[in-house]
Amino acid sequence: MVNLNLLRTIAEVEFSDIVTFTSIIDDKLRVMIIDNSFIDFWWSHKFPKRFAYHRERRHIDGTIYRHDNAPHEKWRPVSSFLQHFHFKFDSKGVVSNLNPLPETAIREFLNIFLVDQQNTSYHFIKSSKKFGGKKCRHKILR
């Protein structure tokens, strides 16, 4: 069972510069981000290893960013299948290298979303460089 309270603390303490509010709703942790988007970190009770980390931005710019391991056959060609990453749209699935451990995965996923000082400009690029003292596979640049 995933410790949602621990993950909530990680989000609130380690990412206080971008996290405005958190709440636990059943089997998910909702994290509100300063740009008025939110991220749902969800783990299935029925299927213990099933997860989805979903950033909702459709109300801002029409995009979503989601790492999950739902067994969608259309993503079988993705080399990391079952795990895959929906980049901007549900219809676009690419390789996901997110760590399977929830405590590490939440850090990696939140590291993706670094917001500039004006809270207006976002660019998403794939990276494997060290960023912010933590190894992450994606980062946002201005």
Task: Give a short synopsis of this structure.
The protein is of the alpha+beta class. The protein has helices at residues 4-14, 58-61, 102-112, and strands at 19-25, 28-33, 38-43, 51-57, 63-68, 84-88, 93-94, 124-126, 130-131, 134-135, 138-140.
The succession of helices and strands, N to C, reads HEEEEHEEEHEEEE
Low-confidence stretches: 115-142
| Overall spatial form | globular
Number of strands: 11
Major sheet: size, sense and barrel closure?
7 strands, antiparallel
Distance between the termini: 37 Å
Kindly state the mean pLDDT as a whole number? 78
Tally of helical runs? 3
Percentage of residues in strands: 25-35%
Radius of gyration: 14 Å
Can you offer a commentary on this structure?
By secondary structure, the chain is of the alpha+beta class. The chain has one domain. The chain has three helices and eleven strands. It is globular, with a radius of gyration of 14 Å. Mean pLDDT is 78; it is low at 115-142.
Write the layout of secondary structure elements.
Elements: H1 4-14, E1 19-25, E2 28-33, E3 38-43, E4 51-57, H2 58-61, E5 63-68, E6 84-88, E7 93-94, H3 102-112, E8 124-126, E9 130-131, E10 134-135, E11 138-140
Antiparallel strand pairs: 1-2, 2-3, 3-4, 4-5, 5-6, 6-7, 8-11, 9-10
Observed structural traits:
142 residues, alpha+beta, 3 helices, two-stranded antiparallel sheet, disordered C terminus
